[in-house]
Amino acid sequence: MRWQPETPECAECGFDWTIPAAKAIGVVSEARTRIESLLDAGRSWPAAAPGRWSSSEYVWHLVDVVRLGTERLWTIRLDPGAGLVCWDENELARVRQYSLLSAAVGLTALREATDWWISVVPTVTPSDLIRHDEHRSMTTEDVIRRTAHEVHHHAFDIERLSRRHGG
After folding, report:
1. Domains in the chain and their CATH numbers?
2. Are 130 and 83 spatial neighbours (Cβ–Cβ below 8 Å)?
3. Helical ranges in 44-88 per DSSP H
4. What are phi and psi of 12, to 5 degrees?
5. Each residue's pLDDT tens digit, 111-131
6. Within a 13 Å sphere around the CA of 145, how many CA atoms are in the beta-carbon half?
7. Is the pLDDT of residue 3 over 70?
8. What are phi and psi of 65, to 5 degrees?
9. What is the pLDDT of residues 60-114, one digit of tens each?
10. HSE-up of 84 (CA within 13 Å, CB side)?
11. What is the SS3 assignment for 16?
């Protein structure tokens, strides 16, 4: 996976991979307000360079990250033998056509996806292990931290775009 922690802190966004799961849950729940304020009234910032995502595309990516995070938590609880599989974020963006989707609708979808994720977190045991197709195994807390990192990291990406465009 692209964001596999190799150090205790993400070199780009500063996310602390050692934070307790409860704090990681807070990162996910607080980020939607942060992103909503950056994209006030659904205003999207263009991509910084060709081949990069706009802020609206990052929002839609986060919708998918949080939804897939919810599905991973359900897998841990309901069918741990199935294991976790990787997915290709760029292929999903292409298939879903992120560039054509509304930022305002994305913010609503992100709020709903986040509420859903937050409601599922208490239903899993933090130390449960599940097979992962690339990393052998992960705990529930690993899945929670990974979702928190994605949310934190892409909120950071959106903030950079906002600053670049005077937002």
Report:
1. 21-41+51-164 (1.20.120.450)
2. yes
3. 55-78
4. -90, -50
5. 999 999 999 999 998 888 888
6. 20
7. no
8. -60, -45
9. 999 999 999 999 999 999 999 999 988 899 999 999 999 999 999 999 999 999 9
10. 27
11. strand
